[in-house]
Design brief:
8-stranded mixed beta sheet, 3 domains, alpha/beta, 17 strands, Rossmann fold, 7-stranded mixed beta sheet
């Protein structure tokens, strides 16, 4: 039996043809910013089936989280045919194996699996030669950074398909592709795709407004159907504060370590063999310079100690969360104990206990007086933009708890630091005016006390 791929006579829609032709002609780096319900995943599945038949290898379809991958892709039903989308894209007649529990199938002489950006580095087997990043702005950007060298080595390809989620790494990925003459970059609105009738769009807008309120609903609608990167991310905790910092030119590569300034305070969100994030604060007169940021996964406390030491900053304190006191079966000593052994108790401190709400409020207050190193803190800034509250489908509201995903590590690490800085400021005595006899020496002494105020916590 012969089966033509794409199967079932499927053809790309007219507005999808530029992307399809680019991929068919050997394109290796594609970014498609398309409106909701325009068949982004459908096209990616169909192209993957063709690529798998032509070049045996390992292929992945990656969602932000492994937990959502089953519903979004593996079990997804085509409402027009009533069939599973994977069965339409990968006909069973050409399959040699299907493992439901792993969301894995062997098709022709290739393998294909649905995975999450939250566990990509734990997958076993041969390295992928084709990756689809679906809903990319919600995914962990470390995934692409980690996998890109692998694709370059084996001449593989990557496709990013998504609607925007504010001005985060989704925008950066799109703009980078636009500047690359060998890449494909396309942003379409619903007016260009014409896949939804105007009367249906009116109903969609009304629904968003009823669900989220007028301001948020209209923003969400612009984001979903007009691919507006400037539409604010609904439920974002610090997104608009980062946008304001950019407008006020407080995000710049002019922000850097001052060797004559105060020692650097380091705040962190660290776990055992989990993603960890670190912010490097240098207190300055009337504010703070976030001069550096670091994040990675799969490293333990000893790895991070070495990494921090290589930065060679004069350290005031290293602030660890209470989780750093925990021990595991794999380790007899906690992260806190390891840091104390190297840096000592005068440097290593634990963040004071505080509720998440108070910690978030501290982050919002402090951020108005923060400057950020644009390049050095780029990943952390993306995390702060994407850090958001959990959406409650039943109550149709955002909860008071932040969503635990890749962005939460950056947000937690920053808010721990903000909490510490605010407490230090509360202990700083303030002069309401300049008293009689106040000299330049007095002013300089006050400046020195300000730069060293963290020491008094």
């Amino acid at each position: 039996m012969q089966i033509q791929l794409p199967a079932g006579g499927w053809q790309p829609r007219p507005a999808q043809l530029p992307l399809w032709n680019y991929l068919e002609n050997g394109g290796r780096n594609a970014v498609a910013v398309w409106p909701r319900r325009f068949g982004k995943d459908e096209l990616a599945l169909r192209f993957s089936s063709v690529a798998m038949a032509e070049r045996p290898g390992t292929y992945w379809h990656m969602l932000p989280e492994a937990s959502q991958a089953r519903k979004a892709i593996w079990d997804a039903i085509n409402p027009h045919t009533g069939k599973r989308r994977i069965d339409e894209a990968f006909p069973k007649e050409l399959r040699k194996a299907t493992r439901e529990n792993e969301m894995f199938l062997k098709f022709c002489d290739s393998t294909w699996q649905v995975v999450g950006s939250d566990n990509f580095d734990s997958l076993l087997g041969s390295p992928p030669i084709g990756i689809v990043y679906s809903e990319w702005p919600l995914a962990n950007p470390s995934a692409a950074a980690y996998l890109r060298p692998i694709l370059a080595e084996n001449n593989g390809w990557e496709i990013f398909i998504y609607t925007p989620r504010g001005r985060n790494h989704g925008l950066t990925t799109y703009e980078r592709a636009k500047q690359d003459p060998q890449a494909f970059a396309q942003r379409l609105t619903v007016e260009e795709t014409k896949h939804i009738k105007p009367e249906i769009l009116e109903k969609e807008l009304a629904w968003y407004v009823s669900e989220y309120g007028r301001e948020d609903g209209e923003a969400f609608f612009r984001q979903e159907y007009y691919c507006d990167f400037n539409a604010p991310l609904i439920g974002a905790i610090l997104g608009r504060y980062i946008d304001r910092a950019e407008r006020e030119n407080r995000v710049s590569d002019e922000v850097r370590f001052d060797p004559e300034g105060a020692p650097v305070e380091i705040s962190s969100d660290i776990g055992f063999r989990d993603t960890a994030a670190w912010w490097f604060w240098q207190p300055k007169l009337n504010g703070y310079a976030l001069i550096d940021h670091d994040s990675d996964r799969g490293l333990d406390a000893d790895d991070w100690i070495e990494r921090i030491q290589t930065k060679d900053y004069p350290i005031g304190h290293i602030w660890l969360p209470k989780d750093a006191k925990a021990k595991t079966f794999q380790s007899k000593r906690s992260a806190m104990e390891r840091f104390l052994n190297v840096f000592g108790p005068t440097v290593v401190r634990m963040v004071p206990a505080e509720s998440k709400t108070n910690r978030i409020n501290a982050a919002r207050r402090i951020i108005a007086r923060c400057e950020f190193a644009h390049s050095a803190c780029s990943q952390g800034l993306d995390g702060l933009r994407a850090w958001c509250y959990e959406w409650d489908d039943e109550l149709k509201v955002y909860s008071k708890e932040p969503k635990h995903d890749w962005a939460s590590h950056h947000g937690d690490a920053y808010s721990y630091g903000a909490q510490v800085m605010e407490r230090a400021e509360a202990k700083e005595p303030k002069k309401e005016d300049f008293p009689s006899g106040y000299t330049l020496n007095d002013l300089w002494e006050d400046h020195e006390r300000y730069l060293n105020r963290i020491q008094r916590i």
